[in-house]
From TrEMBL, chains A, B:
Location of the HTH arsR-type domain: 1-91
Species name: Luedemannella flava
CDD domains given in the database record: HTH_ARSR
Protein name as catalogued: Metalloregulator ArsR/SmtB family transcription factor
Pfam family, one: HTH_20
SUPFAM superfamilies: Winged helix' DNA-binding domain (SSF46785)
Signal peptide (from-to): none
Organism ancestry: Bacteria, Bacillati, Actinomycetota, Actinomycetes, Micromonosporales
InterPro entries: ArsR-like_HTH (IPR011991), HTH_ArsR_DNA-bd_dom (IPR001845), WH-like_DNA-bd_sf (IPR036388), WH_DNA-bd_sf (IPR036390)
DNA sequence: CTCGTACTCAACTGAAAGGTTGAATACGGA
DNA sequence: TCCGTATTCAACCTTTCAGTTGAGTACGAG
C-alpha cells in the first residue's frame, strides 16, 4: 500500500514553511542555505524540513561540493491529485445524481 | 490568508483513518456511529477525527434526531488542487524551458 | 594539511496529536 | 417523565513534531 506514502506527502505539506519551500523550489533548485535564508528559524530546522520533504518523495538532492542542491519532484503531486480527484469526482457524481432525482421529482409533480 | 486553512486540510488528510472517512463519505452521508463501526478505535476517537475534518472544512454536519449526519464538502478539494497545480505547472514549465534550452544547444552544435 | 564553508547528527524541550475511559448532554419513544 | 440511543466533553497518557544548541562530518581552497 502507498497509503503510507500519501500520509507522508500530506503531512509534509501541512507545514507552512515546508509548503513555502516547495513553492520556492518550483521556481528552481536551491541549496539548504539558500532555502533557509529567508526564515527566522535555524539552519538545522530547515535541514529537518527538507528531510521531511525528501522522505515524502517531494524533493531529491544532488551534490555540488559541500552543497546539497534540492530539486522538486513534481511527479509526486500526481499521487495527491489522483487521490483527491477520485473522491471529488465520486462526490460530484453523487451530487448530480441527486440533482437528477430532484429534477425527475419536479417533472413528475408537474405532469401529475 | 488561507494558508492556515490549507494547513488544516493537508493535516486532516495526513491521517489514514480520516482519509478513509472521506473516501466513505464520498459515497454518501453517514452518521458518526456508522463511520466508527469498521474501525478498532473508540467512538470518541472517531468523533474527534470528524471534528478535525469539520475544522478543515472538509465535512459539514446536519441534525437528524440524536444523529449528526456527516456530509463531504467537495469544494475544499479545489483549494488543494489549486495549490498543487500551481506549483506543479511552474515546475513543469521550468522543465520544458530547460528542455528547450538543451534542444537549442543541440541545434547550435549541429549547425557549427 | 589545515581552515572555512555547508551541512548533518544527537540530545533536549515544549506543544500538539491521537488514543483511552468516564461522565455529561440531546433527543425520540414508551 | 423516564429510558435508551447517539454523540460530545473532560481529563489524562504517550508519541510525534518543530524548534533549540552544540558537536561532528564532508568537501574545496589556499
Amino acid at each position: 500500500m502507498d497509503g503510507d506514502r500519501l500520509s507522508r506527502v500530506f503531512a509534509a505539506l501541512a507545514d507552512p514553511t515546508r509548503r513555502d519551500i516547495v513553492a520556492r523550489l518550483s521556481a528552481g533548485d536551491a541549496t539548504v542555505g539558500e532555502l533557509a535564508e529567508p526564515y527566522q528559524v535555524s539552519l538545522q530546522a530547515v535541514s529537518k524540513h527538507i528531510r521531511v520533504l525528501e522522505d515524502a518523495g517531494l524533493v531529491t538532492r544532488g551534490r555540488d561540493a559541500q552543497r546539497r542542491p534540492c530539486h522538486l519532484e513534481a511527479e509526486v503531486f500526481d499521487l495527491m491529485t489522483g487521490w483527491i480527484e477520485r473522491y471529488r469526482r465520486q462526490a460530484e457524481e453523487r451530487f448530480s445524481r441527486l440533482d437528477a432525482v430532484l429534477k425527475d421529482l419536479d417533472n413528475e409533480e408537474g405532469a401529475a
